[in-house]
Amino acid sequence: MRAAPPTNGPRFAATPLAGGGTxxxxxxxxxxxxxxxxxxxxxxxxxxxxxxxxxxxxGATIAQLAAAGVTVRVVSVTDGGAxxxxxxxxxxxxxxxxxxxxxxxxxxxxxxxxxLSLGLPDGRxxxxxxxxxxxxxxxxxxxxxxxxxxxxxxxxxxxDHEAVGRAAATACxxxxxxxxxxxxxxxxxxxxxxxxxPWGRAASVPLEPWAVERKSQAAQCxxxxxxxxxxxxxxxxxxxxxxxxxxxxx
Length: 250
Fold this sequence. Notes:
The protein is α/β, with parallel strands linked by helices.
C-alpha cells in the first residue's frame, strides 16, 4: 500500500453521485478491519464538517456510547448552507436554519445533548483551517484522560471533510486527545484494498442492530438533504451507510 495522497478530491470528483459509486455489497464481501475497543472511551467529541456527517459516518457508534453513559457532543463546523449553491442569500439562510434544526433533532434521537455549531463558511473550510484548529484546541483543552475526538477523515475526498480532519489532527496533537477519523464519502469512491485508503490504521466498530436502527431514524431528520426530485443525498447514500457499518482510522 502506497502512502495516501494529500487529498482524494480527484477520486471523489471522478465518481459522480449519478453513477451510484461502489455498491454496498462490494464492501460487505470484503474482509473487515479489526474491531475497535470502545471501552477506553471516557467521552467523545464528534466533529462534523456539515450537519449529517456525524450521523452518516458515526451515528450508530454515537448511539451506543450515549446509551452506555458516555458523554458525546457534536461540533458542526458549518451549517451546511452551500448544499444547494445556486440559491439566493435569503434561501441560504433558510437552509442553514433548517439544517441546524435537523441536527438538533438527530442529536436527540441519538441520545446526545445540544450540538455546537461553529458557523464557519460551508465549502470554504480550507481557507479557515488554522482558525478551526484553534477553536477545536480550545474545546478540547483540559479534557479528562480517556477523551476521544472523532473527525471527518483527512482523505475523504470532500474538501471540507479533509480540512476538518486536518484541523482536528492539529488540535489533538496540541491537547493530547486521542484522534479518530471517520469516512463518509470514502464508501462512495473507494474500493476494498484501495491503495489511497490507510487500511493499516482502520478499525471497524462493533454495532448492535438497535444502534443501526437508531442511526436510520436520526438520518431521517435531515429531510432537506433527501427531499425533492434532485436530492443532495440520493437514497442509496443512506442505504449504503446503514449496510456497510462504521469504521475509523486511528
